[in-house]
Amino acid sequence: MIQDLQAKNKRIAVLGLGYVGLPLALEFAKKYSVIGFDINSDRIELMKKHIDPSEELEQDAFDGTDIEFTSNPEDLKKAHFYIVAVPTPIDNHNIPNLRPLLSATELVGKALKKGDIVVYESTVYPGATEEDCLPILQDLSRLKLGIDFKLGYSPERINPGDKVYTLTNILKIVSGSDNDALGVIADLYGSIITKGIHKASSIKVAEAAKIIENTQRDVNIALMNELSMIFKKMNINTYEVLDAAATKWNFYKVTPGLVGGHCIGVDPYYLTYKAIQLKHHAQIITSGRSINDNMPIYLAKNILKDINNAGKVLKHSRVLIMGATFKENVSDIRNSKIFDTVTELESFGIQVDVIDPHACANEVLREYNCRLAEKPEGKYDVIMVAVKHKEYENLSEEYFASISADPFILYDIKGIYRNSFPKARYFSF
């Protein structure tokens, strides 16, 4: 297989060209012949013009690549090595939504041939690859695992917006349905990943490794969020506590905040879902999720209290929120929790303006039914800096005061301006 791929006698297909799939497809396309598949034809047209719809990659990332972008499932039949990198979201009840994964699996199953290999990168609960996806592959292809084709799992580890830990310099976990599959998958990924390869003992181990990466971070952030609530009652700044505690060599520093995005706020629900099926109640994980999911409402309640304490009428008040993306310096608004705060404030009649230099206004409107403001207008009773965008880091106290009503109330969620604005009624975690 490797020799045929190197000689471009066989092709790699990457299904799902978002934050994970597109960088992976382009990296492989520097050495191999690649089919980049996405069901969104509008996105495909942009990529044909060397434009990344996710705004993560520059145009030169497409240079020197052997890749065919397509939304036609028939083109998948030309491939022999399939990589599935589609989203794995949750529904409104926090239940895993495997529909995108299973739909992509159906497409692969219809294209699968003897000798092919299928690798999944989408984050799932342990067992999903073999228990949910494999039966579809076998049923639609009429082929048998181990006899006719091979299976593997290699979890994505891309961190959107991170310019240091990029695809090629993040150690890659790989796994396979047998030793032969493991060897081929490891060799193929090893040809583009400079950081190295870790061979997991099984597909389930690789799935579990990925799911606990974000679950661990989620639980630790939840601890910091709960501590921040306690410290606020004590009139102690959490960031100052963390700075002091971090002077010990083995202290694990995690900061409080809103937990959104495509991974950390989602992946733990995949694990707890599987745990429930096994009749186990994952107490720490579910408690952490509850804390983090309620942080937007916690923020809203504090804002409401501050407006009321300032002697103002809620329905006549205005709040400015700076930052709509789930993290700094990216355009990604997936699972952004700031809009939960917006909804809660608006339910009390407060006018809320949201601005963001990176977010797409049309996407925000479509996803959250919220219109981004182009810029601050008039005076605001509360200003919240929710995201640590580079554009916000050097703003002065005078700037905030100029768009603030009296009293000057500033919510600095990420602690950017800590101890810098003496005129403000300052809130931070």
What is the correct CATH architecture of the largest domain?
A: 3-Layer(aba) Sandwich
The secondary-structure element order is HEHEHEEHEHEEHEHHHHEHEHEHEE
Strand runs, count: 13
Q: What structural class results from the helix and strand content? A: alpha/beta
Calculate Rg over CA atoms. Answer: 24 Å
Distance between the termini: 53 Å
CATH H-tier superfamily of the largest domain: NAD(P)-binding Rossmann-like Domain
What proportion strand? 5-15%
Q: Low-confidence segments, ≥5 residues, pLDDT <50?
A: none
Mean pLDDT: 92
Strand order of the largest sheet: 3-2-1-4-5-6-7-8
> Percent helix among the residues?
25-40%
Give an account of the 3D structure:
37% of the residues lie in helices and 12% in strands. The chain has 429 residues and is an alpha/beta fold. It folds into two domains: 2-203, NAD(P)-binding Rossmann-like Domain (Rossmann fold, 3-Layer(aba) Sandwich), CATH 3.40.50; 218-226 and 233-427, NAD(P)-binding Rossmann-like Domain (Rossmann fold), CATH 3.40.50. The strands form two sheets. An eight-stranded mixed β-sheet has the order 3-2-1-4-5-6-7-8, sandwiched between helices. The protein has a five-stranded parallel β-sheet with strand order 10-9-11-12-13, with helices on one face. Helix 3 links the parallel strand 2 and strand 3. The chain is elongated and about 75 Å long. The model has no long low-confidence stretch (mean pLDDT 92).
Keywords:
429 residues, alpha/beta, Rossmann fold, eight-stranded mixed beta sheet, five-stranded parallel beta sheet, 13 helices
